[in-house]
Structures are given as C-alpha cells and as structure tokens.
Amino acid sequence: MKKSVLMRERIVAAAAIALLAGPAPSFAAADGAADTGSSVSEADIIVTARKRSESLVDVPVAISALSGDQLARYNVNDLNRVAIMLPNVTIVKAASGTGASMTIRGLGSTFNDFGIDQTVSVNIDGIQISRGFITNVAFFDVAQVEVLKGPQALFFGKNSPAGVVSVRSNDPGAEFEASIRGGYEFVADEAYLEGYVSAPLTDTLGARLAVRYSDMKGYLRNTSGPIPDNPLEPSAPLPGGPDRAVGSDTLTGRLTLKWDPMDRFTANLKVLGNRYRDNGMGQIAQSVRCADGYDLPTTTNGVLRVTDPYGDCRADNRIQAGNLPENVAAGYPGARDGKMYSEVDAVLATLNMNYDLGSIALTSVTGYSWGDFETFSNYGYDSFMRFPGYVTETSRLFTQELRVNSDFDGPVNFAVGAYFEKSKREGQINTRGPGSPQPDPATGLTVSNLRVHSIRNEAISVFGQMIWDITDTIELAGGARFTHETKDTVQGNTYVHPTSINVLLPAGLMLKHNFKDDNISPEVTLSWRPQDDLTIYAAYKTGYKSGGASIPTGMTMSLLETDLGFGPEKAKGGEIGIKGLALDRRLSFSADAYSYNVSGLQLVAVENLPSGIFTNVVRNAAEARTRGAEVEVSYRATEDLSVRSSLSYNEAIITSYPAAPCWAGQTAATGCVTSTGPGGAVVRTTDRAGDPLSKAPKWTFTAGFDYDVPISSSLYLGVSGAGKYVSSYRTQDDGAPYAFQPAYMTVDATLRLREADDKWELAVIGRNLTNEYYLQVSSAKPGGLPGELHGVIARPREVALQATVKF
Fold first, then answer.
1. Residue 238 DSSP code
2. Which of 24, 461, 559, 760 has the most CB atoms less than 10 A away?
3. Is the confidence at residue 78, as pLDDT, over 50?
4. Given this model, what pLDDT does residue 775 score?
5. Could you tell me if residue 396 is inside a domain?
6. Domain assignment of residue 797, yes or no
7. What is the CATH number of the domain that holds 130?
8. Which domain holds residue 656?
9. What is the reported pLDDT for 382?
C-alpha cells in the first residue's frame, strides 16, 4: 500500500515538472487580465510586503497574490477557501481554542488551546490578528490577498515565524459604482446576496458601503437519532440531533471613508461589523477512525463503554452529534434547551493616515477589534452527548503603528517605526465529564465544572530597515525588530460538582502565570536586478512568537502552575529566489528554495486520562525544520487564453523532541518509554526526532486556465478550470501514525456569460467537483479508545449558480 502511494506521488510529481518545463505556466495573473484582454505589462500586481508599493516582480519576498476578480471567479468568500487556492497554505476552521489552525510550508499552530497564538497571522486592512475565529468573518469586496511565506520580522505586527495572510478590501473610487451579486449553492442549500455602493461625497471625501448576507442549511448530514433507552444515563433519554450540520447565517457590513483634503495627506477609515450564527461549531468535526477491532465509535461513562448505533468511522458527509437531554440542560449553564448553537459577533476598525513630505512619508495605522464568541456543542462527536461544552471568549485588541518611509534620490533609503499592542481575552468553559453527574443537591447544576480564564497581553516593539542601492542593479536591505512582550494569565474552576472533586482542580484555586520576554529578530536581503522585470534575491530571515500559558480544556488536580507555561517559538534560516517576466511580458514566473529551523515549536499534547477526562497542554518541541522549493508560473497564451501552474516540495520534520508525550495507544514496541516522575506519577514519553509535522504534504501541484472569448459583439463566454494535487500528510501533532490523509486531487470549474462592458454576468461555479472528503486536521476522540479519532474534513462538492449586476 505504501509503495503504491509513493509510486503514485512520484508519477504525479514527474508529470508536474514536465508541465512546468513547457510553455504553459502561470500563477498570479494580473488583476482583471483575463477579462479585459490586457497583457501582464498593463496591469502589474502591486503588493505592499515591505510597506512600500512595489510590483510583485520587484519585491524580493516569497509571496503569492490573488486579485479580487480571481476570488470572485471561484466564489471564494472565506479564508479557508483562499488557502485551498494556494500551494503550501492550510487554514482549517475549528470549534474551540483559537478557532482555526493555519499553516504555511508546514509550520503553524494547532487550534485546541485558548492560550496559544497562531504561528501564521492574518492582517486585515492593517490590523494584525492572531486568533483563528477571524475565519468566521465573511470575506467579500476584497481588492487583493497577499500571502507572505516564511518569517516576517519587520513589517507586520509582532511578526510571525511562518508567514502572514494579508487582506486588503476595496476603497472608494473617484466615480459612482454599485454592484449586487446573488447566488445559490445546491449541495449545502446556501443562498447569498452581497453588494456595494461607492461614490464621492465631496471633492475630498469618498465612501464605500459593502454588505453581505448568507444563509446555509449545511453541507453535512447529521444522522444522530433518538436513543430513548440511554444505556449510560437511563434518566436522560437522548433526543438526537438536527438533520443538517455546518448550517449558518452570516450578516456582514463594511463602511469605508477615504478623505483626501490635500495632495500630501490621506486618511482611510474602515469599520466592519460581523454577525455569525450556526447550529453548533462542534458539528464541523466527525468521527473519522475507529479503534482497532471496532466498527463504530465508542464512548464511556467511566464504567460502561458503548458504541454509537448511528455512527461511522470515516471521512464522509455524515456526522453524529446528538443534543443534550432537556432535563440535563436545565442544570447546565449555557446549554439553553440542550440544542447546539454558536454565536460570533465581531467589530474590526482601522484608521490609516498618510502624510507625504516628498522624500519622507509618515504613516499611522490605528486598529481596534472586538469579538464575542459563544458556543454550546457536542465535543464527544457522537450521539450520546457525553462531552457537552459551553465555551465563550470575549476579546479586545488595540494596536497602534507609526512608520516613517524615505524615498530619496540617493542610494540609501530607510523605513523605521514603532508598534504597540494591548489585548485582553476572557473566557469560560463549562464541561460535563463521563461521570454523568446528577443535579447537585446544593445548586442543581449538572456540569462537572465551571471554569474561567483571562489573558492580558501587552507588546511594544520598534523596527527599522535600511535599503542600500549598491549599484543600479544590486540592492542590500537589512533590518531588525525589537519586541518586549508581557502576558498575565489567570485561570481556574469556579465550581466543581461533588462527583468530580477528586479529579478536578478545587473550586476557587486560581492558577496564575506571568510571561515576560525580549526579542530581537533581524533579517537581511540581497537583491540583483540584471534587467528590467527580473529579480534574483537571497535572504536571511528570523521570526518570533511569544510564549504564554496553556488554557487546557480540563483543569485536573494534577495540573500545576509550572505545567501550564510554555516558552517562545523562534525561526531562523534563509531562502533564495528568482522572479520575472518574459516573452513580451506574457510569461510571469517565480521560484524559490528555502530552509528554516524552528526552536521551541509550540505543540498541543492531548491526553486521555484513565478516568475518561481529557485535557490538553501546550508544550515546546525542541526543534523542527522546514525546507523545500516552490515554482509558480503563468502564461498568457493569447488574448483570450491564460494558463497557470505551480509546484512545491516541502519537507517539514521534527529534528529533536526527545521527551515527547506518547501518542494514544503507543506501546514500548513502538518507542513509548514508561518512567516514574515527581511524586510517583507515571510518565510516558517517546523520541519524535524525524517525525513529519502535521498538515505538511511533501508535494503540492496546481494547474488552471481562464478562457474568455467573444461570442457576439456584446457577449463574452468564459470558462475557467483549476486542479490541485496534494500528497499524503499527517493530520495531528502527536505523531500518531494512523492519523493520516492519503494523497488526493480536487478540481474546480466555472462557466460564465457576461456582457462585454461587464454590466452583468451569469456564472455556474463548481468547487471540489471530484467530491473529495479529505481530512484536514484530527485529534483523539474524547471518551474514545486509543486510536479513535475525530477530525475536520474540507467542504465537499459545491455547485453554485451566481448572477452579478453592476451599475
């Protein structure tokens, strides 16, 4: 089996290399090129990777860019779908913790701990966000998305060891514009409507209002039915769950005001509000693997173990998620009537002010975000609702950046600045363990515990870069960022049920952790531009992400304050690259090779205790390494046809982790060593050196085309297609060899009919037409046997009918 998979991967990789060697490659086609018939030279993509407006070809950074037209063509309306379009990028929405798992080139953070920040950060219109719940914010009216790969030490917030996803929304224009777009996706029964109005209000003030609403019944089927004779809790007959899963409705609006009172000064204010509701975030996950010897998922009450009669153990379009019995929900704060739900409200605001003094430009970027997250979900991922969870988090973030950029005629220029960030996150987690606690005689509560946590964070950093044009064709750029950061974490149980007092941390005992650290992250880049439209560069880069304290799901008696703290994560290494235009600027290409070492990699170890209680703690793996190569090319073959392709090879492995926790079910024969720790505790560890990191396929290959041809004097017919091949990869961080996704391939396609002047368009959009149920991330199933897994699959086949009208 393994030999056949390996052979298949090699054959596909060889075919990819052969295609890239031919005259057809593409990636970042110019904005609007396929629709207007313009060549690449007429619409070079402009990026701001170094906080300067530079063409994609000139900037010496490994970067992929997607235009608003490209995103609309495939109905890309969330960050998860952006990642699907790009090689070596993964964004997986999750039901707890940070709210998502994001990786670039195999480096990223897991989602299932509230105390961890993402190794990949998201920058939306200038505000830096490290919480995955941003994936619940609707994604629309976007001008461009830039994905910066590798450590970003200088220009984005506190910097990111793996990379940054930067999103820039549309601004008001000089003339009146308006558009409305509506569509219906047939598999998930998703209806959506969005539109914008943009106009100059005065000679100096412009406004743009964009709104989107969507209602989705759900793309997964919930097969969980009633169980009147509940074998685990006879007094609580199980009601079953809703028929559909991952159903949601979202309303989002963004107001942009752009003020140009004089030639030298501009101010741009953006305020976004988002309201998201669904039928339980836990329903995004499902049982994907049974324990050896079992055909159905299992769960336990600590004494008896049963199988789920409605369950299965494979990645498909079926989940099992039962609601909580009403008599139990009556004593469960946050459970309401026992039916699952999620509510996410968010506000993001940025004020960007620029003052141009000629050779000096002053920039101020002020950001504020507020988010309120609340969910009651089934975290046992089965019909028995053994592990209900009520989870909340309210977060507030304020950022302020001041930046000075020079633009002298001489050979030396610079950028210097300062960044301040202050945030506060407060949350609550109410859980119910396997002991089936009956109503507490004193309080009537049916929960195992009520627990709270708060994290206060403050960071101050200064940064600077010097750019020296050594000659007309050689540029040396070097700089560094200094960061001082503090985090104060407080957490503990405010209530413990009498049946859990021997297992959980006593009520009222608050564990505190204080983190403080200073860091200097330098980088240097040497660029050579031997001719116009050709850049060759070599870079040494570093990245840093602070440590903090883990927020484990279960506050058990065995936890100590010293167990919760984890240290910073640091990356260093380098890359070389080449990018350019050729063949009368119809061919664009980029290639790079990289190697980075990461120390203190922050991983979450999920532990299933003998009592059935599960918990997770963030640990620092000693070292990891990611290295590989990427090629992206695009070719405008004719005025009507453009093609694109990319190929990436990535090897992301743990190079040193001698005392890693054993994966569930690991034995001495497979490397698990049992020893006695402090206080006589049993410690099970393994050496994970050489293990691959999760969500890190070795090979990724993409190819696509856009064909847009006139069929009459007023009508155009457009056909687009895109395919993506991804080799096999591990799906969780603990190294379990059975947590594995085989290689897969997806195909997207679009057929559109439009008026020549773009006043209207009708489109049929298909995504994942091969209907691949591929596993994105997995973890040990709570309450399950060793080897049982639950996980999140990518959205299966989508077929949407969409209409757009512009005014």
1. B
2. 461
3. yes
4. 94
5. no
6. yes
7. 2.40.170.20
8. 2-391+402-806
9. 94
